[in-house]
Predict the 3D structure of the following.
Amino acid sequence: MKKLIELIEDSVRQAFIASEYDEKYAKVTISNRPDLCEYQCNGAMAAAKVYHKAPIAIAGEIVERLKGNKFFGEIEAVMPGFINMKLSPDFLADYVNQMKEDDKLGCNMAQPPKTIVLDYGGANVAKPLHVGHLRSAIIGESVKRMYRYLGNHVISDVHLGDWGLQMGLIITELQVRQPELVYFDESYTGEYPKEAPFTISELEEIYPCASAKSKEDSEFKERAHEATLRLQKGYPPYRAIWKHILNVSIEDLKKNYDNLNVSFDLWKGESDAEEYIPQMLYLMKEKGLLHESQGAMVVDVKEDSDTKEIPPCIVQKSDGAALYATSDLATLVQRQKDYQPDKVVYFTDKRQEMHFTQVFRVAKKAGIVGEQTELIFNGFGTMNGKGGKPFKTREGGVMRLENLIAEVENAVYELIMKRNQEDIEKKKTMKPVSEEEARKLAKVVGLAAIKYGDLSNQASKDYIFDIDRFSSFDGNTGPYILYNIVRIKSILNRYQENTVMEDTHILPPVSDSEKALMLVLAKYNDVLESAVNEIAPHRICAYIYEMSDTFNRFYQDTKILSCEDGKRQLSYINLISLVKRALEECIELLGFSAPDKM
Ligand code: ARG
């Protein structure tokens, strides 16, 4: 569907052209003074200078031409030369009804659909998921859903960190602890056990211990490096241990991502890029890009227009070991071969920006991807604790994701219990909520609190993770949005207790708050399309917050269930179920859902 604002602008443009003014002055915006008008055009002011006329005269001419146009209920020229517009209630209702008939609520599908690879999650095998990986998962998942919503072909890849030094560290530490394992017997030739020699909790203890050791003990560190190299070169017993590490970790990771309602099409990792390294090097050599620097193979990537120094990209270490850039470049070879993507988007902490600048430049120079392929780095800010410092546990350690989720769920649980108690005291309800029910609800609401708390900030900014604020049922929070959806559900249910809900046309609005609600609804396609184009879930959050508030105002000022005019009532019911549909589509895109009661 054409956007509402485009329809209006088209007609304003026709008026400018008919009056022989340049159409560039016909720009229409949503009014920043909703008390005065809904849309405005300020072009007469700029045109006045060029055509040597008073702005108000030009505005007046345009308004004259537009009077009687079906879009406008009111249109006037206001000093010094504004054109203020209010939509006609009929036209607005008509637009909203068209939205209602469309299964994407008036959004235009991507033309043509693009093939997009999304690289998010990025968990490191054998290390526990921590809050740093939370943002990547939450933002990436939402962007996946947004791109898909508009019909693009999207492939999501978790791109595990499964190939680096941490593997060598674990292998080395394992050898210290259990030297008797067959993997460390050089003369062993049999099959390796199917069963892993550790559990996930042991693994999560082994890694930090080995990592700490390597910082103090240089001999240990050397051995870990060697083990990493041997693993990367394919030494069978180390490969066998590595497989165990992968299996045990991935099982645990899947559980964690499931809890977050985050999923991936591909569970590839840095290790999967290995087989593409020769081709990657070949492409670089062929273009004469590789040169040696202090024993390592590097590619220069600086450009004349750089304002800061971009160091050469190291693609291979002197001992032949793969680096972070090696695996990212080789992964692009694989992605190009498998999908020929139009776009590849990466979601990591913005501190990795330099790495991606280097990788993208090498990829383009070496022709790993085509000139047209968009490589996008979506760097996000740090999630801080209340004091403004990176989020930590009370003891000062790195917060594990599981614990963080549990804390939020607890906070929501307490809130649900407290509200229920208050409702009983105020005699709003008789029924105490059961512990089981409240726990179940706290899971759904807690996820909304976490995700909305994150996504409502512009991704590149740092933000403060404030459990109390995020889980509050009032204000700009996930629970507040859910609360409004639940309220609509309950009105619809009560209506349906006595009446069959008919799907009918929504009538033109009769009150300001009803019109305001329709105006917000009518922006749906505009907001969603720009959120997708700008990779900006926070725009969807701002939109549903506005919609919730506007709905609330409408609800306060309208008798819905006790409305005596049956036709009008049915129109209200259809209107609010459209609001519910829009809100639910949006939260689905953000990656959470609403309960039936709250
Ligand atoms: N494993 C990395 C980390 O924890 C993130 C991986 C991001 N993706 C990529 N293709 N480099 O920092």
User: Anything to note?
Assistant: The chain has 20 helices and 13 strands.
